[in-house]
Amino acid sequence: MISARFLPLLAGAVLATASPAAAVSASAVTAATPAPAAKPAGIQRIDPTFWWVGMKNPKLQLLVHGPGIANSTATLRAYEGVTLDGVQKLESPNYLLLNLTISATAKPGKLQLEFKGDKKTTYAYELRQRTTPGDQQKVQGLTQQDFIYFLMPDRFSNGDPKNDYIKGMRAPQVARDSMYSRHGGDLKGIENHFDYFKSLGATALWMTPVTENDMPKASYHGYALTDYYNTDRRYGTLEEYKQFVDKAHQNGLKVVHDVVLNHMGSKNYLFLDQPAKDWFNQWPTFTRSNYNSSALNDPYGSELDRKLYNKGWFDTTMPDVNQSNPLVATYLIQNFLWWVEYTGLDAYRIDTYPYSDPKFLMQWGQALQEEFPRLFLFGEAWVGSTAQQAFFARNIFQPVDGFKSNLESVFDFQSQGAIHDALRGDQPNMNRLYEALQGDWMYEDASRNVTFLDNHDMSRFYSVIGEDFAKYKLGVAWLLTTRGIPQLYYGTEVLMKNFSNPDGKVREDFPGGFAGDKQNYFTAAGRTGQAGEAFNYLSKLALYRKATPVLATGKLMQFIPQDGVYTYFRYNEQGQAVMIMLNGNKEEKTVDGVRFAERFTGFSSGTEVVTGATLSDLKSFKIPGRTAWVVELKK
């Protein structure tokens, strides 16, 4: 499925040629041709930019980049506990690979790397002391008790206008009248509203990628990274991002870092000056992915379809990385270890997870979990069935072509589609909600999956349900009471609306986040009318969920919907239970409570947590039309 994220790229005339495919293909071939040999003229960079002593894996691969650096002889001055195991040349004369071993006895300091050619160059490479082990505020992971607030930094709040334009970067200044330009939101703007997130009941922040995206068009979304080891300075510096994570932790908020494994931006230095042709999936002419993951585990599938899916490009300006190359795999794994150790972030959200090389995904996940056991990994697997979705998470399946996912969690697109189907139109289809969970037996633990109503790649929930406020409350109640880790897209709490096609306005600015905004939804006074009612309803349920562990971590029992009413329970062995009843009909319905006797044992009444109303009779219920009840059962 093609993500709506890339519609702005295609609509925005990314390549001003009659044949963008041919243009990209030509540039790829040209960039992959080794440049003429040149004399070493200094080192432009080394990736990783620095490293740490005490990592569980003692091996370190350094990618050295500089004009003609391959013509140099590389050595390491004596440093206790560190050895240079070998030097490897690549196709391009502008790269060298240095393979080091950092023993457990090594101390922090600076390695002196010497490069001798026509000239001698010395590079002081820093080894730092680790800070994440033993620090309980770093790399906390996520659990079912979390509630993720998802936002786009560029569209949320501008806290530092001085970084709106950075000299030398390709995109022009901010232009808030264009949906495909940058608007100026940044890390400082998000930080300014930590109290807002907490008042809403959120416990974790997921932002679209904050890594550098120095692309000339539609660079605001962040999914075409141009530097693996730097933040986008229009959001804040690398150090400011580290401080942002620390401050979020101090405020009781976890941080989810959005990453892309499958591709990069075409302005990344690794693509502009390719280390070797086999660092990217090359084609004679530009070739897109077929966007169909079914090819990976289809027992009757063709090799061509599998190759197109995994090795075809996602978009013209997003070169597909060849993760089957072990040097590339190591480069990527080290990078994502680096971000965790440097910042102490809590979770990775993996963009376009299934598109990557399957064996690499297993290797990547294992390496991160071994180094950071508490790190939480969840992936975007936008597929068409529960079985296919479960294939990309830890599951009960046998390996397919050597692949068995070690990913803890995936976005639950199946239940997301179900809540839309259940509430779209006049006739409720509550059976879809029941069926979406019926396939949970395929997962190792489906309660780790991330549930949601909408996101930046699809039409907003409030518009999909026809701007019906009663249906909105049904959807919110379901999100905050069903199994899994709920995620809320920014603005859903104040009824932001619009469709992803044709104008992409699902990524509009949050009202109040920018100078001159006529409305300010960050304040109670600014949230007038139904926007305020929506915020209050959602926050009350989210805060109740936060204070009531059984609603997040308890077992779930659901009953087959009858007459448009869906009823399920969250309960635990300590005798706590909450009943959720969703009436999708316009009219009131009478529900026979005797049907739920196995869950009512030991309880005599209940309290509806939003209204405070008491339900004294558990044998029969009259639930109003288009109403959600969240009932704490009483003994």
Q: Count every helix, treating DSSP H or I runs of 4 or more residues as helices.
A: 19
Q: Label the CATH architecture of the largest domain.
A: Alpha-Beta Barrel
Helix content class: 25-40%
Rg calc: 26 Å
Low-confidence sequence ranges: 1-40
Look at the structure and name the CATH superfamily of the largest domain.
Glycosidases
User: Oligomeric state of the chains?
Assistant: single chain
Q: Strand tally, please?
A: 26
* Neighbour order of strands in the largest sheet: 16-15-14-13-10-9-18-17
How many domains? The number is: 3
| Ends apart, CA distance between termini | 49 Å
Would you tell me which CATH topology of the largest domain applies? Answer: TIM Barrel
Protein name: Glycosidase
Keywords: Glycosidase, Hydrolase, Signal
GO biological process, one term: carbohydrate metabolic process
Organism: Hymenobacter luteus
Describe the 3D structure.
The longest helix is centred in the C-terminal third of the chain and has 19 residues, at 529-547. The chain has 19 helices and 26 strands. The chain is globular and about 90 Å long. A hairpin with a 2-residue loop joins strand 19 (555-562) and strand 20. Strands 16-15-14-13-10-9-18-17 form an eight-stranded parallel β-sheet. A six-stranded antiparallel β-sheet has the order 19-20-21-26-23-24. The protein has a four-stranded antiparallel β-sheet with strand order 1-3-6-5, covered by helices on one side. The chain starts with 6 loop residues before the first helix and ends with a strand. The chain has 635 residues and is of the alpha/beta class. The chain has three domains: 45-128, Immunoglobulins (Immunoglobulin-like), CATH 2.60.40.10; 148-547, Glycosidases (TIM Barrel), CATH 3.20.20.80; 556-634, Immunoglobulin-like.
